[in-house]
Amino acid sequence: MRVKRTHQDAVVPQPLADPVS
After folding, report:
1. Distance (Å) of CA 8 to CA 15, 16
2. How confident is the model over 1-21, as pLDDT tens digits?
3. Where is this region: Disordered (predicted)?
4. CA-based nearest residue to 2, from 11, 21, 20
């Protein structure tokens, strides 16, 4: 699991959750 992911970050709750929605 990386700190910065693609649109997949929406699946995993990250500290740097980008607004992909």
Report:
1. 14, 13
2. 566 666 665 666 666 666 665
3. 1-21
4. 11
- The residue whose two tokens read 């700190």 is 3
How far, in Å, CA of 7 to CA of 14, rounded? 12
The whole-angstrom separation of Cα 1 and Cα 10 is 13
Tokens 């990250």 locate to: 14
Evaluate whether 17 touches 9 at the Cβ level (below 8 Å). Answer: yes
Q: Are 9 and 18 within 8 A, CB to CB?
A: yes
